[in-house]
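Structure first, sequence second, as always.
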């Protein structure tokens, strides 16, 4: 299996000096080279066994990485090896950014957790079910809003990803499937509505709010609300998520991969996208 050169690591000392008062320091917690090599071999096996095209793995202690490697391929069709500096979509991990921005606005007194979203989103029908939903309920996924609306074709690349107008249409058409506060129901539409609330209250775009209030303070230099044009390894294609292709494709191992026993039949084993670096 092809891999990029790992980021240099700092091996643990052979005989680490105990920390004062019996507390372990971060250097005491770094595994020895034999353990790191075992982790590396296990990761290679897992990718091979699961037929995953490629992956990045980083392990650290107290904010300091001691293991950072890339495995497999970022693009099977073009034969591009995965690198540690390739950028991935973080997908729903971005919901933590949204929740953080909401709570920052609450701390600043610009927004209330029990505010109904209607006054913040005048595009919604004031008498409709969405307008009465509270900010807290969207944060908790208890607003009863459909997960992706009535048509989630954008996730399968059957149409363009919704802009603000299309998002509001999806929210209005889908409505709610349960009364607010009644059940837990995970909703991408719900968090997208929170993004619009953030824009309305902050007076800026979600991307800019995330950059100035979360990304920059944390020093996340390669993190953005959209892809970064001109950045090596970063393309608008979904290189970091598994997705279905319009035409089923049989998975084939990259050149140089070891032979593999037939554990699953082709009909029972899901096949990853040939172009996805998930």
């Amino acid at each position: 299996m092809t891999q990029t050169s790992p980021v240099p690591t700092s091996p643990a000392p052979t005989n680490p000096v105990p920390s004062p008062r019996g507390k372990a320091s971060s250097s005491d917690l770094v595994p020895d080279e034999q353990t790191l090599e075992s982790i590396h071999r296990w990761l290679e096996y897992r990718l091979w066994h699961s037929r995953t095209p490629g992956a990045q793995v980083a392990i650290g202690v107290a904010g300091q990485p001691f293991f950072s490697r890339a495995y497999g391929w970022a693009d099977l069709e073009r034969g591009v090896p995965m690198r540690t500096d390739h950028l991935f979509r973080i997908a729903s991990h971005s919901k933590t950014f949204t929740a953080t921005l909401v709570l920052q606005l609450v701390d600043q007194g610009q927004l209330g957790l029990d505010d109904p979203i209607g006054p913040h989103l005048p595009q919604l029908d004031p008498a409709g079910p969405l307008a009465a939903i509270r900010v807290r309920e969207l944060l908790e996924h208890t607003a009863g809003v459909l997960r992706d609306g009535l048509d989630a074709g954008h996730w399968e690349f059957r149409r363009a990803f919704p802009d603000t107008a299309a998002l509001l249409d999806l929210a209005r058409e889908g409505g709610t499937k349960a009364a607010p506060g009644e059940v837990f129901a995970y909703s991408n539409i719900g968090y997208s509505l929170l993004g619009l609330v953030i824009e309305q209250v902050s007076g800026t775009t979600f991307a800019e709010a995330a950059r100035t209030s979360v990304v920059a303070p944390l020093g996340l230099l390669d993190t953005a609300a959209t892809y970064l044009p001109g950045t090596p390894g970063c393309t608008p294609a979904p290189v970091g998520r598994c997705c279905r292709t319009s035409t089923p494709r049989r998975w084939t191992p990259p050149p140089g991969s070891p032979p593999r026993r037939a554990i699953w039949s082709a009909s029972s084993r899901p096949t990853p996208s040939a172009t996805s670096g998930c």
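Margin note: Strands lie at 54-61, 64-75, 80-81.
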